[in-house]
Write the structure tokens for this entry.
Amino acid sequence: MRNSRKPPQVRDFRCEVCGEKVQATKSPSRKTSAGHIKHMWCIKCKEETPHVQISRNK
């Protein structure tokens, strides 16, 4: 039996506070484009900051 689930997509984000670049996975069914804002933990700022999506998908 084949697994019909698609693997998650890796997308690139940049912290709007310090500029640190990070990657996050998303489900392929979630359609977002470059410029999308996601609030995530920044490893450099040590707090939750807005991150802007800089890539469509990989």
